[in-house]
């Protein structure tokens, strides 16, 4: 039964290769996008770390973007 | 306009990403079960009809994204809205991916149904032209990013490129092509059975959720890039 399912009535090569191409390229783009996002989040958090403590506290309080990134970085670490 | 500030947008992006992550795999498994197991075999094309469940949604997404990009680019050129520029920049790679996927899966479907991987007919050629417009758009974003004429160049590309969209849509009616006419009509009766429409729309939903996920991650990256520049200036 499984062999019949994989054969897809003789069109197995075409059906499976279509789904595989879509799955492979979607996965590649997902990992590439996530890697880039993590890289920028990390770099950004590092640059914030280098700021004077007083300054860092002030902008983290006033900026939702910064507090969100710091929160996600804290979750990772 | 406060609602559209980067601060608010990033909070909603995080919430949406979490929501999509929580439902994506369930919908993917349901979609694949319908597409590969439950949906019936076509009386003419046999099981090869299952390629439709990835080919058609990919083509729809490729076309819709280019239309969105074109409208946003023109609006950005006219009204200088920064969010729209980030919107187009984040969408373009997704549109290119799905246009390429629709061409590749279409080619794989073509072999068992038409007996050839490729034919220079109107539908296939116009899809290839769309792919070239995406490539040009992305290359322009990459190599003219510091150019003051960037939005002007992108608007010209969008205006020329959007002419191709109705050509793709009506190519099967205007010319004699290997490609079949549309089976699904949004205004009118579709010639496709519900048992095939359900898996088709389920797979469309899966791919749309995937697009939303990639778009949100890319958009967030672009916001961080801008904030990073601002920190450097401090």
Topology of this protein?
The complex is a heterodimer of chains A (77) and B (234).
Chain A: H1 2-7, H2 12-49, H3 53-62, H4 64-76
Helix pairs in contact in A: 2-4, 3-4
Chain B: H1 6-38, H2 52-79, H3 82-114, H4 122-143, H5 150-174, H6 194-233
Helix pairs in contact in B: 1-6, 2-3, 2-5, 2-6, 3-4, 3-6, 4-5
Structural commentary:
- The complex is a heterodimer of chains A (77) and B (234).
- With 77 residues, chain A is mainly α.
- Chain A has one domain (2-76).
- Chain A is built from four helices and no strands.
- Chain A has helices at residues 2-7, 12-49, 53-62, 64-76.
- In chain A, helix 2 (12-49) packs across helix 4 and helix 3 packs across helix 4 (64-76).
- Chain A is rod-shaped and about 70 Å long.
- Chain B starts with 5 loop residues before the first helix and ends with a helix.
- Chain B has helices at residues 6-38, 52-79, 82-114, 122-143, 150-174, 194-233.
- Chain B is mainly alpha-helical.
- Chain B has one domain: Four Helix Bundle (Hemerythrin (Met), subunit A), CATH 1.20.120.
- Chain B has six helices and no strands.
- The A-B interface holds A 5, 8-12, 14-15, 17-19, 21-22, 25-26, 29-30, 33-34, 36-37, 40-41, 43-44, 47-48, 51, 55, 59, 63-66, 68-69, 72 and B 5-8, 10-11, 14, 36-37, 41, 46-48, 50-51, 54-55, 58, 93-94, 97, 100-101, 104-105, 108-109, 111-112, 210, 213-214, 217-218, 220-221, 223-225, 227-228, 231-232, 234.
């Amino acid at each position: 039964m499984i062999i019949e399912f994989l054969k897809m009535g003789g069109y197995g090569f075409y059906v499976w290769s279509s789904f595989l191409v879509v799955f492979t390229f979607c996965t590649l783009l997902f990992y590439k996008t996530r890697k880039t996002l993590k890289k920028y989040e990390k770099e950004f958090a590092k640059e914030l770390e280098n700021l004077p403590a007083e300054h860092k506290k002030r902008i983290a309080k006033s900026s939702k973007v910064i507090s969100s990134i710091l929160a996600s970085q804290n979750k990772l670490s | 306009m406060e609602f559209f500030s980067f601060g608010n947008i990033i909070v909603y992006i995080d919430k949406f990403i979490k929501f999509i992550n929580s439902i994506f795999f369930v919908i993917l498994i349901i979609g694949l079960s319908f597409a590969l197991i439950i949906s019936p075999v076509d009386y003419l094309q046999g099981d090869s009809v299952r390629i439709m469940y990835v080919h058609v949604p990919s083509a729809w997404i490729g076309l819709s994204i280019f239309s969105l990009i074109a409208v946003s680019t023109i609006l950005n050129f006219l009204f200088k809205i920064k969010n729209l520029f980030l919107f187009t920049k984040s969408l373009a790679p997704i549109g290119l991916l799905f246009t390429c996927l629709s061409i590749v899966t279409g080619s794989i479907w073509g072999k068992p149904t038409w007996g050839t991987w490729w034919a220079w007919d109107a539908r296939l050629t116009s899809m290839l032209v769309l792919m070239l417009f995406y490539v040009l758009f992305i290359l322009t974003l990459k190599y003219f990013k510091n150019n003051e004429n960037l939005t002007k160049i992108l608007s010209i590309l969008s205006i020329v490129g959007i002419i191709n969209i109705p050509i793709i849509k009506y190519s099967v009616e205007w010319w004699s092509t290997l490609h079949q006419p549309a089976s699904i009509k949004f205004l009118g009766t579709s010639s496709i059975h519900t048992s095939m429409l359900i898996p088709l729309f389920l797979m469309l939903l899966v791919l749309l959720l995937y697009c939303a996920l990639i778009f949100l991650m890319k958009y967030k990256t672009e916001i961080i890039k801008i904030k990073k520049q601002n920190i450097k200036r401090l």
